Amino acid sequence: MVPPGKLDVAALLQRQIDAFHQRFLVPYGDELAKSPRSLKDVVIMASMLEREEPKPEVRPKVAGVLYKRLDAKTPLGVDATSRYTLESWNDRKAFLKKLRDPGRPVQQPDEGGPAPTAIGAPSLPSLVAALRPVESPYWYYLHDAQAEIHFGRTPDEHEANRRRYNVW
User: Fold this and answer.
1) Which of 34, 40, 86, 165 could form a disulfide with 144 if both were Cys (CB 3.0 to 4.6 A apart)?
2) Whole-prediction pTM value?
3) Higher confidence at residue 27 or residue 104?
4) Which of these, 35, 49, 58, 41, lies nearest to 78 by C-alpha position?
5) Same domain for 105 and 142?
6) Are 87 and 94 in contact (CB under 8 A)?
7) In total, how many domains does the chain have?
8) Residue 89 forms part of a structural domain
9) What is the mean predicted confidence (pLDDT) over 41-51?
10) What distances in angstroms separate CA 165 from CA 4, 85, 153, 168, one per listed residue?
11) 3-state SS assignment for residue 85
């Protein structure tokens, strides 16, 4: 939080917009124009990738899974969209309560869609991953207790991974 009167908020916002333009839109604008995804879609996906996958090199593969699910109107199952409204990101009890709350304000795993807006400021690697998703045979993924990702092709494979890695 920025204390009132200590910063020119309009100047800060303009600086952020200018940086986004120079770092992403200038070098990737032509590619974005040819993409089937809108700028808004790419930014929302990138914001989810930023929170969902700690390793930038894996994010394009995760983007491929999420876009595949989105295009098939299959629930995304992105924990980050549930966590971003929590006071403490790692509060597991609050997270599980949020997952079970039918009145939550963003689309959740059982509702199919992405967050309605970006859930945070994505890094350049996340933006590029959202712009350049990698296709794979996978429809599912989860992270184990060491934050290692495990992909699955079918619901049965995914459930086997949940049991194998003791993931809720």
Assistant:
1) 165
2) 0.82
3) 27
4) 49
5) no
6) yes
7) 2
8) yes
9) 94
10) 46, 26, 16, 9
11) coil
